[in-house]
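During the practical work, I selected for study one protein's amino acid sequence and its backbone structure tokens, as given directly below:
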Amino acid sequence: MSTQATHIEYPPLQGVTRTLGTLSLGAATFMTVLDTSIANVSLPAISGDLGVSPTQGTWVITSFAVANAIAVPLTGWLTQRIGQVRLFMTSVLLFSISSWLCGMAPNMTMLIAFRVLQGFVAGPMIPLSQTLLLASYPRAKSGLALAIFSIITLVAPITGPLLGGWITDNIAWSWIFFINVPVGLIAVAGIWSIYSKRESEIHRLPVDVVGLALLVIWVGSLQIMLDKGKELDWFSSSLIMALAVVAAIGFVVFLIWELTEKHPVVDLSLLKGRNYWTGTLAISVGYGLFFGNVVIVPLWLQQYMGYTATDAGMVMAPVGILAIIIAPVVGLTVNRIDARRYASFSFAVFAFVFWLRSHFTTDTDFATLMTPTIIQGIATATFFIPLLTISLSGLPPWRIASASSLMNFVRITAGAIGTSISTTLWEHRSDLHHAQLAETINTGSPAAMQTLQQLQAGGMTHEQALGFINNLVTQQAFMISSQEIFRGSAILFLALIALVWLSRRPGGMADHDAAAGAH
């Protein structure tokens, strides 16, 4: 339904200017992605300091996620009304200000309000940083631009909990927000000096008020449902049921409205392109699987394997080692090698990684736990770049901002869905396995009785010995549940290979104006 905008073609950046532009965009992107996970480990400290319960404290995460999910798909529409450089600059500046306000918040109410602002203004930053980065590079090097973007978006979520935990333990939780201020201001200065004269055309399109309202309603309902579902035991809660109904009806009405609206707030006509919808679906499902496991592994290590938050983070951290080495190679060759082959290879390696993890036991040592993480770096390096190349191939420059924002919205939503499904299945399956294992521990079991007697002989009371055995059973139940999640993830990654081959072979973004970005 979108009409083509007047297109201004700017030449790619060169030399030092391109390097500084890349660093400025990278800093802003890293800061934004980091903020999606940096506060997670700081919730106990934030809740305690502001005098609220841990449950209330989770709204620090939920409020940001809801506002961000609503803002991301609006990027294409806002770009046409404001201009991509002005919108990006404004977003980074307001993000820095809202970060400072979050750190200064005197109570939980104000902190949540500032997090809503922070999440909303962060919405356009990831899609537009991707667009501007593509526009900074020659078309033949568009893969390299995507490689830089993919490294940032993969490394930042893993860095967040490590950095957030260290800052909270050694300085104060407020500094997880304050650190954004100097980074944001430096990024603004760099972006303004380089991109201010490369503004896109502005078109005063009518405001799709109905579409905007429907977007806020269904996305907000869905995001709150996903964030609060496990805590409220999902559909046994009337609130979750109500949110699910509102999200479902709102989504259907939103689709109908946007597909018939002359100036839609979200350009859903993009999904008519075979490469766009297959690439977007593959990258979103893959990201949902990846992110769901990124959450489960540290939880399992900390809660049932006795690891500290820092040690659990160290198990996950090496994913960036091989990714940083291999991603530039993929970026430089993706125009010559069929991107579908790269994506298939990525999914196969992901499947192998999760198959290895499905063999973890409670006796697995640190080095063995870290091995799949290191190998996973190969998969992540060949994940984003080929799938972005497939999705954006053939799109004219004036549609890149809209395409990027819609794709990132679907990807972020898939990450939230993946996390909710993974953690819920993990706990439900562990309950089932706990019950099954507990049935074998009774007076008719010689092994159980012998263990009980040995523990009591070691100085434990009968109740303490039973509690110790129950903890062992719980540990084993979650171990078995983790193995099932890993095994299921491996199978789903293999299934994604077939999805990739539904797309047409992209001729390489060098053959398309898409690589130039939305100018």
